[in-house]
């Protein structure tokens, strides 16, 4: 197993009242930056030493991440970042496509002008990230973009379901974000989604958002060929 680098922990001061939640966020950040990868063992002792906390909150954080599907805990071996099979990934894309269609139908009726303006601003940042060959910045803005899309539906159940799936896909999505030649297509799809929302076209937004997700699924299938 590779030696873990704890650059993401530099300067961190954990709040003792919420330490387990903050450790969860830290582990997600380490996945996002590539410090932790699928199959890596999460060493409780090492985390405890680096963060200056007992193992109790670390175990609490790992149990929460296990419930999200991000971590697998194996008796007598420890906690590992879960590996997603291709079937797992494709199944998640199918569910996300359905959620996207539902979100798209609601967005033109429920989104505020401020939210639409914020989405357009994020789109511009993603276009700039691609032009500057900065896929990690694209991925960061892309996450915020989709989070805001689902928030703008004002449907808490849709938002919660989307978050759960994105957490499970985090390892795979990070790997995809390094492939810059695919990101221009994503930006074009984002533009179609925003155009449909701006026109008040519920069916158009639903189809555009669903197709955006299915594009990712097809891209995955193509890479398997």
From TrEMBL:
The protein's name: DNA-binding transcriptional regulator, GntR family
Annotated GO MF terms: DNA binding; DNA-binding transcription factor activity
Annotated Gene3D superfamilies: GntR ligand-binding domain-like, Winged helix-like DNA-binding domain superfamily/Winged helix DNA-binding domain
Keyword NAD: no
Stored SMART domains: FCD, HTH_GNTR
Record keywords: DNA-binding, Transcription, Transcription regulation
HTH gntR-type domain segment(s): 17-84
